[in-house]
Amino acid sequence: MATHKLLLLAGDGIGPEVMAEVKKLIAWMNSHGMGTFVTEDGLVGGSAYDVHGVAITEETMAKAMATDAVIFGAVGGPKWDKVPYEARPEAGLLRLRKDMALYANLRPAVTYPALADASSLKRELVEGLDIMILRELTGGVYFGEPKTITDLGNGQKRAVDTQVYDTYEIERIGRVAFELARKRRNKVTSMEKRNVMKSGVLWNEVITALHAREYKDVELEHQLADSGGMQLVRAPKQFDVVVTDNLFGDMLSDIAAMLTGSLGMLASASLGEADPKTKKRKAMYEPVHGSAPDIAGKGMANPIAMLASFGMALRYSFDMIKEADMLDAAIAATLDKGLRTADIKSDGTKVIGTGEMGDAIIAEMAKLAA
Ligand code: NAD
């Protein structure tokens, strides 16, 4: 069995609490013949600042570059509000994303049947929802130059941000979208604003050409990003993989997230370029939520987003589809039993703590594996 190297960066606040549940799961999988994981811990964010005076050390960065996957908790908290800007906790996360060149951000929006009533939409619209928003993460208007505010000297100022995409950037994210779709329901919806933006015209052109050249077996449709946003809340189940740029992806992934109910349930993955020899992509997996200082240390954080992020590592870094499906099923079965952390509680359910939730999910894994 192949050995998989993982760098665990738990971070701050509830980060270490939810990471503890991933460690339990890894230990259980290792001892039940479900993979050979070798893990190493590292500091990031405020906890790294407290020890080293930086949000991530060069040594930890080197480990992140060499590992098979980084599993990241969360960073930040009021304790570090006044640290120098370049050493703020988020700087550790941004450095990882930048140096690992993680250009593809995968945000699944999955509504577990037991939680369908927690969605802002009607149950029938979201029950059984399973879509993937794929956001381009390293290009576009957040990074394009010029990016300036100029004093025009007449009491007015002018702000400029530049939306810029090159063919290769669109092509590589498109490729990730089509590959993902092939492992799901084989449909890609590309969203841009070709009616008013040149970058949208090129985006549309490149995705269309890539599809015709290499991915004809996948269904491709195009939607304008604004009407795509409407469709996401009108009939979200029409989608499988939605691929879009950095700006639209930022918004559309947050909209999709809310279809599922709670922040404590949302996983994500960020992928970089595949190594030409090993075909392995640089990869980081993290929950969407932050360090939740308001509940840190109380043992009440929901570990599901963190565990599901590890599940994405099984699926996308290690091709352990059976095990990833099993983990998803174990999470669904635990929720079906009415077990809930406080953030997702509802009438008639039983509220349990972080550790108990992790134990309950592993117990369901054990049943499924038996
Ligand atoms: P947050 O996601 O930490 O918390 C928002 C709300 O959701 C809080 O009420 C929190 O208790 C709740 N919540 C979040 N995750 C939960 C979980 N797993 N289980 C139960 N409840 C959960 O966002 P925030 O309060 O805006 O930010 C807190 C800190 O986290 C800030 O320092 C912020 O900069 C940082 N942050 C970090 C990341 C990251 O590391 N990727 C992302 C967002 C925010």
Report on this model:
The protein is α/β, with parallel strands linked by helices and 370 residues long. 40% of the residues lie in helices and 23% in strands. The chain has helices at residues 15-31, 46-52, 58-66, 89-99, 123-126, 167-182, 198-214, 225-234, 246-258, 304-316, 321-336, 354-369; strands at 3-11, 36-42, 69-74, 104-110, 130-136, 144-151, 157-162, 187-192, 219-224, 241-244, 267-274, 281-287, 339-340, 350-351. The strands form 3 sheets. Strands 2-1-3-12-11-4-5-10-8-9 form a 10-stranded mixed beta sheet, with helices on both faces. It has a two-stranded antiparallel ribbon with strand order 6-7. Helix 6 packs across helix 7 (198-214) and helix 8 (225-234) packs parallel to helix 9. It is globular. It starts with a strand and ends with a helix. Residues 14, 74-77, 93, 263-264, 286, 289-295, 301-302, 305, 343 line the site of nicotinamide-adenine-dinucleotide (NAD).
